[in-house]
Amino acid sequence: MNRKSRDQWNLEEEEEDEEGGDEVEDDEEDDDDLSHQTRPRLHHNPYSRRNKGEASSSRLPKTRRSMQHLPTTDSRYKPTGKPQKSNLKAQGRLERSLSDESYANMSMSTAEPSTSLNVPITPFNNRQEGDLRSENTRLRTQLQAVQGERLSALDNFQPCSDSDLRDAFVQLQHQVSAFSRQLKGALAKSKSESTILPGHLLSLCPTDDIPIKFYSESFLWRQLYIECFQTPFILLGPESTIIFQTWSMVFGDGFGSIPRATEASEKWRSITAIEMFGKITPARRSERVKEMTKSFLSRFGSSDYHLHTSLAKGDQLEKLIGKGWDAAAIFAQQRCRLHLTIPETLENLNCDWVDVVQEVPYTERAAFAISPSLLKYGTGYGQNFESWLCIVKAKAIRVKDD
User: Fold this and answer.
1) Is pLDDT above 50 for 205?
2) Triad 187, 178, 372: Cα angle to 5°
């Protein structure tokens, strides 16, 4: 009979399984030897058969543990306390595949950085730096705008036009001419005009033949210059001396002289004058005008009775000084340099800033100043001080020989 008995079939299968198990063990040993030759010793595989005894069952892959308990209908593959030899070949292949995959993953992790989506491509610090730079730019622009507004508020200067300056000075001229008629009678009663007010005129009086009305005008202009126009800050009272000395020390020689006109010196003077005059109330102005009027009268209280009486009569002198205050305050706040200039020589009488109103014969030639001229040096904004303009001409008398 060709058919084999059941016992013979089982016996042959068991022998094949034993041979197959031996082949699996040989293959695994060969693979282990190859892995030690090709793989670095640094990568330790706890799941290899060489380290099988050292690895705990809890660290084995779930797939390996589950394969030991796979359900099957074949009675030959029912689990027992020891794995079947027929499963050893598949189990060995699984171990090798897991070991290869583990090694590959480990090698990749040491060679390439992580590119997970949780890691931003642009570093956070760079983005924060960009935001701070944008914020700084915005704040810088805002600060510049605020500074510009502040500077414009501090230096929002608008100069007076030449016509406004002329009107202020001409009004003062008219006030002086009107008040000089009041003094004409007092001076006419005096013995000699040349002996009454020595040094109190705009220029020396060479002869008594000069009309009294021009003589009195020269006298009034000289006193107005002392009280209102001698320095840009004289209207401020006692504190004007400190301010003037500071201006002279910073921009001049520091000895109390008026500094040479420059853009810096005139800007400082203008800003200081605007600030100081801005603090003066109408009541303070009226008080200062009264003080200046008393100072004016005090210089002539003992010189001539008729002259002092004429000056103190009424409120004409106070009004004149008040008009001089208004003009001087306007001039002090300008950035151009405004000069009250008188003709001192015969050559000055030929200049276009002098108006000779009369000629008086005398044994010697001379120039007698009746009123000063108003000269403007520089532009209204305090530049180009080499140029000048005559706003109002001076009035003078030419004294000539016979």
Assistant:
1) yes
2) 85
Local confidence band at 197 (pLDDT 50, 70, 90 cut-offs)? low
DSSP collapsed to 3 states, 275-329:
HHHHCCCHHHHHHHHHHHHHHHHHCCCCCCHHHHHHHHCCCHHHHHHHHHHHHHH
In which residue are the tokens 């001396």 written? 241
pLDDT higher than threshold 90 for residue 377: yes
What pTM, to 2 d.p., does this model score? Answer: 0.61
Question: Count of CB atoms within 10 A of residue 351's CB?
Answer: 14
| Spatial separation of the C-alpha atoms in residues 217 and 398, rounded to whole Å | 16
Give the DSSP per-residue string, 220-257: HHHHHIIIIISSTTGGG-TTHHHHHHHHHHHHS-SSSP
- Chain segment 317-371, per-residue pLDDT in tens: 999 999 999 999 999 999 999 999 999 999 999 999 999 999 988 878 889 999 9
Query: Could you say which DSSP state residue 332 is in?
Result: H
Helices (DSSP H) in 155-239: which residue ranges? 162-188, 193-196, 212-224
d(CA 161, CA 334): 10
For residue 1, the SS3 value is coil
Whether the CB-CB separation of 273 and 333 falls below 8 Å is answered with yes
Which DSSP category does 149 fall into? H
User: For residues 210 and 368, what is the distance between their CA atoms, to the nearest angstrom?
Assistant: 9
Question: 364: exposed, middle or buried (C-beta count within 10 Å: 0-12, 13-18, 19+)?
Answer: exposed
